[in-house]
Design brief:
Order of helices and strands of chain B: EEEEEEEEEEE
Largest sheet of chain A: 6 strands, mixed
Helix content of chain A: under 10%
Structural class of chain B: mainly beta
Number of helices of chain A: 0
Helix content of chain B: under 10%
Radius of gyration of chain A: 13 Å
Number of strands of chain B: 11
Shape of chain B: globular
Radius of gyration of chain B: 13 Å
Structural class of chain A: mainly beta
Oligomer: heterodimer
Number of helices of chain B: 0
Strand content of chain B: over 45%
Order of helices and strands of chain A: EEEEEEEEEEE
Amino acid sequence: GQNIDQPTEMTATEGAIVQINCTYQTSGFNGLFWYQQHAGEAPTFLSYNVLDGLEEKGRFSSFLSRSKGYSYLLLKELQMKDSASYLCAVRDAGNNRKLIWGLGTSLAVNP
Amino acid sequence: EAQVTQNPRYLITVTGKKLTVTCSQNMNHEYMSWYRQDPGLGLRQIYYSMNVEVTDKGDVPEGYKVSRKEKRNFPLILESPSPNQTSLYFCASSLIGAGEKLFFGSGTQLSVL
């Protein structure tokens, strides 16, 4: 079956670094997305990985290992505004438009 | 400004009263989709469209209808809403391509009494 696993909740301190993991088991793979969603708002795009390795974009980085079915989102220099839910989504190779979504990781950043 | 406009933001209705949630994008995107988001269940796709007059079912299409008569608009229709359709709904659009990101509307919080 198709499955994406993420921790439900995480807590971190302002200024620290946090890593949010995502593991997936899907019938095909055509890329992995990370989205950020603040409470009551729409998801917004953070990153896309299709090849193995680390993609860095400012304070946010995303890593992918296709052989392990594993990705992580790394948030550095945490700020209070980073308190949000982080959604991992995998693009299915069979249907190029199908996105399989994780349930999201709710991150609380404390002062 | 590039955006997906979704209306209304909040809607309270009663069982059986037909309603339409509108969605419009100004980015000339081919692909549009509707999701519902419920606690513990995450984002679930209702319907999607790859282009004008081309629509297809997602994972939870029962009780919903869509149409794509123009490229920019993709309304979601609930012919006879029921309480189990109480949810947060999002419209999204993107270009066609594996790595193309979704742009989401601001969401519609629907309550069916």
